[in-house]
Amino acid sequence: MKDCFPTPPNNTSSGTNINTMKGASPLLVPFLLLALASSLVSAFDPSPLQDFCVAINEPKDGVFVNGKFCKDPKLVNANDFFKSGLNVPGDVSNHVGSNVTAVSVNELPGLNTLGVALVRIDYAPYGGLNPPHTHPHRTEILVVIEGTLYVGFVTSNADGNRLFAKTLNPGDVFVFPIGMIHFQLNIGKTPAVAFAGLSSQNFGVITIVDTIFGSDPLINPDVPTKAFQLDKNIVEDLQKKFSD
Amino acid sequence: MKDCFPTPPNNTSSGTNINTMKGASPLLVPFLLLALASSLVSAFDPSPLQDFCVAINEPKDGVFVNGKFCKDPKLVNANDFFKSGLNVPGDVSNHVGSNVTAVSVNELPGLNTLGVALVRIDYAPYGGLNPPHTHPHRTEILVVIEGTLYVGFVTSNADGNRLFAKTLNPGDVFVFPIGMIHFQLNIGKTPAVAFAGLSSQNFGVITIVDTIFGSDPLINPDVPTKAFQLDKNIVEDLQKKFSD
Amino acid sequence: MKDCFPTPPNNTSSGTNINTMKGASPLLVPFLLLALASSLVSAFDPSPLQDFCVAINEPKDGVFVNGKFCKDPKLVNANDFFKSGLNVPGDVSNHVGSNVTAVSVNELPGLNTLGVALVRIDYAPYGGLNPPHTHPHRTEILVVIEGTLYVGFVTSNADGNRLFAKTLNPGDVFVFPIGMIHFQLNIGKTPAVAFAGLSSQNFGVITIVDTIFGSDPLINPDVPTKAFQLDKNIVEDLQKKFSD
Amino acid sequence: MKDCFPTPPNNTSSGTNINTMKGASPLLVPFLLLALASSLVSAFDPSPLQDFCVAINEPKDGVFVNGKFCKDPKLVNANDFFKSGLNVPGDVSNHVGSNVTAVSVNELPGLNTLGVALVRIDYAPYGGLNPPHTHPHRTEILVVIEGTLYVGFVTSNADGNRLFAKTLNPGDVFVFPIGMIHFQLNIGKTPAVAFAGLSSQNFGVITIVDTIFGSDPLINPDVPTKAFQLDKNIVEDLQKKFSD
Amino acid sequence: MKDCFPTPPNNTSSGTNINTMKGASPLLVPFLLLALASSLVSAFDPSPLQDFCVAINEPKDGVFVNGKFCKDPKLVNANDFFKSGLNVPGDVSNHVGSNVTAVSVNELPGLNTLGVALVRIDYAPYGGLNPPHTHPHRTEILVVIEGTLYVGFVTSNADGNRLFAKTLNPGDVFVFPIGMIHFQLNIGKTPAVAFAGLSSQNFGVITIVDTIFGSDPLINPDVPTKAFQLDKNIVEDLQKKFSD
Amino acid sequence: MKDCFPTPPNNTSSGTNINTMKGASPLLVPFLLLALASSLVSAFDPSPLQDFCVAINEPKDGVFVNGKFCKDPKLVNANDFFKSGLNVPGDVSNHVGSNVTAVSVNELPGLNTLGVALVRIDYAPYGGLNPPHTHPHRTEILVVIEGTLYVGFVTSNADGNRLFAKTLNPGDVFVFPIGMIHFQLNIGKTPAVAFAGLSSQNFGVITIVDTIFGSDPLINPDVPTKAFQLDKNIVEDLQKKFSD
Lengths: 244, 244, 244, 244, 244, 244
Description:
Chain A is mostly beta strands. The first copy, chain A, has helices at 208-213, 222-228, 232-242, and strands spanning 17-19, 82-83, 98-103, 117-123, 129-134, 140-146, 149-154, 163-168, 173-176, 181-186, 192-198, 206-207. Chain A contains 3 helices and 12 strands.
């Protein structure tokens, strides 16, 4: 099995990555450039109204629908339900030391309307971090394949912002309920690998730090300054760092 | 109309507040103590299977359901669909200078299973802020009644964390799509007031700063330190400030 | 605040109005010509499968979908989530003395797929009436801003057609559950104003009297004659009155 | 408020009938006493989370849920999915000359969570009428077995309250879309019989005339007087007739 | 009633049939050629976002959506909600001796987005069989009009594959819960006729024997050989029989 | 990683197994005794109305709901979202040579209302088979970790019962759309291991052969005899084999 899931070279450079696997939606790639390793799930999609509805790229006339248009069913074949490559470790040489390889409707068009997706997450040893993020409408169920992770999520204000955290070893499973802010940290000395099932066909990751300090254009700095009660200089430094 | 919506006294002390209106769910009150003024929406609840299903408090035997148990329909009366008090300004004497008065299923039990709620938001002059937050599964549509607000939301990673922001005056309406991190800032010299309709019967506010730096218990500081690329001392200061 | 919500001139002519705010869907305007002031809500729309799906007008080739086609997300900007004008009183110089100004997906395209909308309702003094109507699939939560309203809804046959009614003053909130026939009557001597949040992005108002007596073409008069146990002359008079 | 809601005189006239088939929910029977023959459909119930969830009567402690509690699955048998009697004509000796025999979750507990129901409708010759009514959230598909019916529905205000009507003979099928006000009239000289499939497990019939003129208590007569532009005496006569 | 539903001529040849009524979707006809008589239901479709969304055929450019595109509402008329012919017995001269005449969205375009459909099923005397099949996501409620049927469904593995079976006579109603494998067998000496309401606008019948032994192309015979623990010759005979 | 996922001893005896991991629902164990290894998915569950709703066992009074009752949220801790053991190979010493280890709401109560689950499937070398089965309402996305699988699903009658099949190697992903009959066969000389994400919190596996030939009680043999066009002796042999 070593051949299937080789340990990545020890690389400590910066820049998170989501590997979109050169899939059906190259359009999304530029948006995913760097800072955001994430679990990439989604849930409660509309029910299918036929056996399947394999996604096609948007037509050239600039007309879109909620979700995706479908391929002519007569032209569909087994490859529309297939994607290879989840045995290849993601490149964790980035500033957070983690990488998400997603198999969502963008990489596997047969997932359209079916409400489920899968990701592989790689973590560099000694602190590879999938930083705090949220998925607007999907739950994530994660299983550790290799390594040791410290994982957790925080509940909403009404529940007192409670932290539910746990250390996970191979074979351990953990659930991050829909919408909750969550994270995973490699606390071991070796690379870590996890797979996660997601309750939607889609992406929709919101990495907190990129959203607050790295949006395009930047939020008026008065907002994070007051919200975080930080010195304005620190806020402006953060904005510089996350908006290159 | 001045009597109905009097201008609050100019108060610049700290401590945000969500006014739960002494409603049906006193349990929620302690969690909402300070830092979180928010728009408090929700969406896509299950359809009702009868004319109405007025919520009752959880039975004493510690058994709960997804959503709420219902009152015996024969005992329901018009007051179950009624709540007064949205003419009373919320107390904005807190550290962010804003206050949310919610009318959700916790305050108005007749909303159960009906997928909609309403809030009033008050903002202190000169910078009252409803700080960056998200609602796991509801959209918010806001109308300004008084004052001038700078409002915005940031899209997800896949969309490039774009900021959509706008200055709003009385009668202006703005939408914060489900799950997006958003905020409102009073940029005028007078108090501001807004109402918002929400696409759910429920709360579910996640104020970013309280979640990341003020959870109970605290997240291992290595996580925000690495994610925000901040000095560890600053992170620990933030944790102290938001977890009292 | 007087400037934001000025009292309309006292006008006693006839003809209800729904102000569609010269929005994205001029097509709907002719249908809304007179008799129907209504609360205009909707609920339980399909979940969004992306951050947003801003509605565009139907393409010229006469092809439609359930809901709306979406704008190219790269072309979306903050104005797609914005609408001004809810500070302007609606014109109540019509036969029922009320006016609904709607902000639904037709006026605010950013609401598409988001399951919520907002309306402003104005009522003439001394009896302005939002006549009995129903919304096929949305709930309405109403807050009174000015004036005094007598409001109510009637449950279905299985529940005994019970009336739940209440007199509302400024700051009072009332819920009209999905599908129930309901109404509001200004019982004060001054104009009344209310806002309502709706659990859908869409219209879908069915004003009872226009449906039964003013359909196009008219229902065979034997049907309302037998159903209402009225003299056939009275039925034919009603049909004349409501089908001009 | 007594003036607004005069008590109607005791009235013992005749009335349509919904035959609830002496089923699982005797509680509903009193509400269904007379005036309401209807098509009794329903739609878009929550998905089942197990093979079946056979409804049981509400427990004695007055606690209810949205929908129904379920029977212990180990005690379920084939009779829970079975109901006899749809070959028996309903009694049409009432003021509208029609009768609905329903097989919904109240009569056939195995339908719980399954989103479908069935009714038989009988119509007296020479004018048996299933009077204008609506179902808050279900569609009805009707097939004529015997006789000749004039049927139709009216669309919402936004669509111009258009009437879609048709004369049906045996074997003809017609659809009444969710929420639309609709009716059926026997225009033949013989009894008529129809079956209808409904997109919900539930009732939820709103007969217009009973709702507007026969609610309990009565709506303030000013409301229907202004809405229908009728003489107040006629309104009060209607209220007397429909509220015995 | 004999006139409406005449007894079909006694015909004992083979080949099941689904009568798609020469409806809107001739494309589906070839797929339905022989072996599959079925109850043809569907459930839990997306809610409509307008009064109706009458289905149109797929546009010529090969672009499809989940469900169906809609006709321009201004061109819709009563015939879009109408279908005749359910009084005509289906041809049961096929190898299983049964026939399903469906009225789904393919035959009655007005059903689009409405979540309900209707079928007529005819069974030859002395053993006409609607063979074991399943519907991926719809429930079926069946009423017997003529004859005597032995009907049943089997629950899932987790429930112990229990059989719930019953003998039905005219007027008897039985429910086949969503997704369960079920069948009907005419155990009488006369033809039998049933109607069934279905909780979806759509088809989606999976006849077990055609799926396992008659797929195109055939499944590797090792799979059914091992699964059914049959002699490989028998499996290959079955594959020959069901894949002509 | 060898330690985490050791190769199981080569064992060619019979008796499939679903490993329910000694979880929260011992009740299900007896039903899962032998013949059914399956992918165990589920989809489109109701949305959560709170941060989480951790499942509890049914109360002793025999009252059930659709889905599960919830634990008092104040008593919930991180272990409610955690399950260990997916690194342990399932026992494939059964007649089909495969084993499903499920992590659904029954084993991991925190999954309740969240619409997703995870399974590990083990296959014996030289022909370990997860036999043809269906899931009434969930999609499955499978990734191969070790070995070589021949997998496929067959579409519904309306689509011509087309087979979509593929040979999968480590890192390959395949989708089995909701409701379709599907299978996996180990065509390699070594054990195979796969993980699968499922679009529901729940089970709901229907193994075809157990349903048709092994139900409790048995289906009248005339039904499979006619449906499969088999000699009645063969049918009775199959019934004996699958109903011990």
